[in-house]
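Input set for joint prediction.
Command: fold jointly, output tokens.
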Amino acid sequence: MTGGAKRLAGRAVDAALTRGGYSGPGLTLARRSVRDWARVRLGPQLLRGSVAGLAVAIPRPGRAELIPIEVPLAGSGEVTVEVLASAISPGTERAQWLRLPNAQPLLPFRPGYSGAGRVIAVGDDVAGLSPGELVAVPRLPHSSVATFPAAWAASVPEGVALEQAALVYLAIISGYGVRRGDVSPGDAVCVLGGGPIGALALRLAREAGAARLIGVGRSTRHEAAAALAGAEFRLVGAGLTDVAADVVIDATGDPEAVGAAVSAVRDGGTVVLLGSPRGVSSAVPVREVQERRLRLVGAHVSALATEAKRADGDPFGALAHAFLAAVGDGRLPVADLVGESIDPREVGLMYRQLAEGTLTAAHLDWRRLPQDARQRRRPTLRGPLLPNGPSSVGPPVRAPLDVSRSPLRFAVVGCGDIGFTNARAVARAQNADLVLVQDAVPALAHAAVAAHGGQVVASLGEALDPQRVDAVLLSVPHDLHAPLIAQAADAGLHIVVEKPLASDLPSARAAVAATDRAGVTLSVCFPYRYEAAPTAARALLTQGALGAFRGAALVFHAEKPPSYWQGGFSGRATSDWRLSRERAGGGVMIMNLTHHIDLLRYLSGCEVIEVSAAARQEPGRQVEDEIAVSVRFEGGAVGTLLGSASTRGVPQSRFELWGDLGTLQLEPEARLYSERALPGLVTGRWNALPLDLVDERTEYLERFAAAVLRRQAPDVTAIDGLAVQAVVDAVYRSMDSGRPALVESVQASA
Amino acid sequence: MSAAAAVAAIGPAPVLVDVVGSGRLGSEIRRLLGARLWATTSSEPPDAVIETTGETAAAVLALERVAPLGIVVLAGPSGATGSLDLYTDLHVRGLVLVGVPFEDE
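tokens >
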């Protein structure tokens, strides 16, 4: 391909990727994937085919993810391996993640050190390796498949676990440090640093014949690892001048540890700098080095590569084979160094734990991925495998409804704005019958019956006839909720009340007390729970998709026209009760945000414990049009709720909830991001949540009816209604007083 | 004494050695090195550098000039401590820094 053609092709690829939603580091990774694909498919390797898998990538600081990769099958002098375990080098990978000095690779970056797996293909001219053989491979990025020079692979002796074999590169690094120290039989060797590199250095020094070993670590948790090498253990800061080691190996990576290393070595001895110092050493004891005739030896593994270029032999291979042989015949125990088995899909979480110090040793276990995700042969020409775009979580699976029982007979009281909609939901419910319909304005009741069925009755008393109905659905002005609930309870009917439970908390409590006395079921209509996205999200959240709850942000926008205040959105029932604080209880908070408060509780599993609110209301209205609320949840999470009834143009609302492992967004997009590996989720990516149209009110009523028919508690209980009502009352107390309000205090005084 | 010890610290391998410092110690070391003295016209870096000035900056320069896996001998009257980027100056290139006590001869 000519240079001009390449540029044209590059522009076409970029345009296609940009159209596909890729940008920034994601675009770079995608472009690289296309280039790799082109190299595999359009080059001379076309005949060889390729293998697809997954690899860890760090596209930007603080983010790690699995990306699809496609590697050519082994060519001349090469071998292709299905990686089953890859070792984490805690010091280096932590430093790379934190971008510490001397550990700032260009981004995007493919991390990884060392692994082990099964050979799946060998080049024609490769001897001594065959498909199916288990090999350890140094210098391997974290990936499920890799093709590399066959000389890198070292056979894993029988009986050596793959995660132990995967430590091979760490062992090479440590072994090189021991070698650079010229450790001789009978020497005293002191190793600073209790991580895997330090522990391996101690054990390999013993292999080299060291007679006395001293391990120095920051914490007593390194003591057991030192003991396995037969070493005595000391804590950092304990004083090392009496050690007088022939060789001191500094495996800390701390630039200031050189002083301690020098203090631990005998006159004329050797200090090996094995761990990469993450910064400048401010006080290298130069005079002491001179006066005591010390040797400071740099032992970065790249120096071994320099040696390899100069020497005829293969120093990497020699160290790898020596390590594997020692592990194989039991001389070198390493089972304690493999650390936690990590699902590669949780690599972002792993790096964070590594950075926080809560994880000190680990390996990625690629066997935890489905087989077809970690290794798929691609023998035929096909399109490139791009980094995943948003994936999709399947629609929520609901338990089938039992319709064998007799339906629950409903009366619908109130047929204005939402009452008309509620009557339709009852009519549609498979396990409910719309029997009686009543409204103070008979024309509204007749319209509802004409549309949805049932029979109009003139009075409330007739509607609450326990001989004719089992339950009532109340859709009336808020101040009528409590008295009508009490009246229906007295009649022995089960009750669904349109949200809120009542106009204030004392009224709500009185209503609940009435239902408790009557032994009937009361539920508040919070149907948002039954929409497809919240249902799917809830299922994932209960599996820990977000981890520990940390925060929520919610913005609700509406533009209620002037006519709304006289007749609701539909204008079917003329009444100004919505303008009255006494009758409605409030404005946009109680009228709309109650849905969101319920949803926050439902999804987070946490109650609001404190609120601080400020509001704005239009002249001539007693209720707020705009309200801003800061909330604190039990457990420490915080959130903001912003509601408006008068936003011109009605921008999209927002609903976001996040924890330490992920984020849920229901609006403006329904999607979930999680660092947990969960069925149906792509870890470390935004997963689209289902947006299937659900008749959520009908769903809610069917589940209410099913619960009542089975004599079980409904999904949304009176307790839920009271909890939401308490938050609303606290918000209004704060709004009125200008001070934060504790929900508990509101409950105590109600 | 210092000059002989500094040359001995490099070892017997046939390496080319550069010497930093034009004082008496440096001159004596150059004399002892003979044919092993690195030629300033060489296109290859020296395998070893003997630093005789005692200046930290000169020691850093010596570490930068020496070939990978090379040796730097500190033989001059050094200060008590120095600030070094051990990663860049020593670790990553596999250098060896050897101390030889300074004695005013």
